[in-house]
Design brief:
By secondary structure, the chain is α+β, with helices and mostly antiparallel strands. The chain has one domain: Nucleic acid-binding proteins (OB fold (Dihydrolipoamide Acetyltransferase, E2P), Beta Barrel). Helix content is 25%, strand content 36%. It has a 5-stranded mixed β-barrel. α2 links the parallel β2 and β3. It is elongated and about 85 Å long.
Length: 153
């Protein structure tokens, strides 16, 4: 009776071992990103609100790797917008085949303003058709300086 119950216990533990979920492993470049409060790349500009610079963690899909050395890549921000990202540490090399993969990156997001915005901040006036285009279609470029990145599998 003892051997039968022992064999059943071993059999069930073996079955549970076979069907247990395997932990997913991710590739990390730089420092391990903080995954507690992650912002979607498509919501980054709204999350920044009126702040020109903010430290955060984002999740997004890589559109292309522009330069392997230094970790330069583009992230899809939705609605045709692109976030240009690069590592703060130039010695980090990322693989060129991560196009289409989802990444979690921690770093500093910054808005780059177009020349019309800079003229406005300087006190110069923009008038006519050009002023209307700036109000209806602001072309702010987002950049992201990465401290650490994790490629999800």
């Amino acid at each position: 009776m003892k051997t039968t119950s022992l064999l059943l216990a071993l059999f069930f533990s073996y079955v549970l071992f076979l069907f247990a979920q395997k932990p997913t492993q991710s590739t990390i470049f730089g420092a391990r990103p903080d995954t507690v409060s992650v912002v979607s790349a498509s919501n980054l500009e709204a999350f920044m609100d009126k702040k020109p610079r903010i430290s955060t963690t984002i999740r997004g899909k890589v559109i292309k790797v522009t330069r392997v050395k230094g970790g330069w890549f583009d992230i899809d921000a939705g609605n045709g917008k692109v976030i240009s990202a690069h590592f703060r540490d130039y010695n980090i090399n990322i693989p060129a085949n991560i196009k289409g993969r989802t990444v979690i990156a921690e770093g500093v997001a910054q808005k780059q303003f177009i020349a019309d915005d800079q003229q406005h901040f300087a006190g110069d006036t923009v008038s006519g058709k050009k002023q209307q285009n700036v109000k209806t279609n602001p072309k702010r470029k987002l950049t992201f300086e990465v401290k650490g990145m994790m490629i999800e599998k």
